[in-house]
């Protein structure tokens, strides 16, 4: 993870895509969720913790990640941003929280955002 905002450009080496859900219906009255690309960004992706869990009697592994991006007003509110997900290569991360940070990456501000994410399918 970069230590301050000044080295963000050299540290942001991962292309991510923020996606939003859209509900569609078919002619039989069924509904499904389709994910639309909102924006493609350069980011610093830092895996935080990994764990193994059991889902439907099957063992799965999950990874939490911190994703640092430049500030975007459309992702500044956790309640709104948590509906979206982040695609990193072939992995999907659900946004759990958003921290709006200043250039020092420690205090509240509008220079950068830290997306706290959990890998897996959206809730």
Mind explaining what this structure looks like?
The protein has 123 residues and is mainly beta. The protein has helices at 8-11, 78-81; strands at 14-25, 31-55, 58-70, 85-88, 91-101, 112-119. The chain has a six-stranded antiparallel beta barrel with strand order 1-2-3-6-5-4. A hairpin with a 2-residue loop joins β4 (85-88) and β5 (91-101). The two termini are 28 Å apart. The mean pLDDT is 85.
Structural class call reads mainly beta
Number of helices: 2
What's the pLDDT, averaged over the residues?
A: 85
Give the strand content.
over 45%
Neighbour order of strands in the largest sheet = 1-2-3-6-5-4
How many beta-strand runs?
Answer: 6
Shape: elongated
The separation of the N and C termini measures 28 Å
The largest sheet is: 6 strands, antiparallel, barrel
Q: What order do the SSEs take from the amino end to the carboxyl end, as H and E?
A: HEEEHEEE
List keywords for this structure.
mainly beta, 6-stranded antiparallel barrel, 123 residues
């Amino acid at each position: 993870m970069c230590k301050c905002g000044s080295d963000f450009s050299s540290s942001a080496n991962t292309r991510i895509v923020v996606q939003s859900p859209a509900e569609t219906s078919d002619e039989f009255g069924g509904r499904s969720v389709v994910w639309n690309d909102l924006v493609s960004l350069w980011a610093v992706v830092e895996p935080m913790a990994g764990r193994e869990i059991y889902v439907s009697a099957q063992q799965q592994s999950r990874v939490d990640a911190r994703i640092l991006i430049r500030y975007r007003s459309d992702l500044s509110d956790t309640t709104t941003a948590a509906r979206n997900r982040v695609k990193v290569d072939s992995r999907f991360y659900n946004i759990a929280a958003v921290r709006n940070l200043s250039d020092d990456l420690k205090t509240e501000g509008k220079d950068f955002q830290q997306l706290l994410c959990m890998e897996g399918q959206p809730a």
